[in-house]
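lol ok so funny story. i was supposed to be doing the assay writeup but got distracted and ended up predicting the structure for this chain instead. priorities right. anyway since i did it might as well share w the group, maybe its usefull for someone
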Amino acid sequence: MDRGDQLELYERVADQLKVAHDKVRALQVPESVRVALTRKLLVITAAAKHDLAAAERRLTQLNADLDEGRFPDGG
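and the output, tada:
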């Protein structure tokens, strides 16, 4: 992956992270669910430091889950 592609991937991941954080913040869910979703976002953010492409895939799936109303049980 050349430098331009890498930068583009970083920008996509950053944009998706912002969207995911906004979605989580806006949810009307129990605090335990919000905490579980926040942990997922933190794990994805940490993973991005090592494998940006995998982090993007996980983030895309998380955003899709949020859009479909699929949330962790928070337990």
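Helices lie at 3-26, 31-48, 52-68. The chain has three helices and no strands.
back to the writeup now i swear
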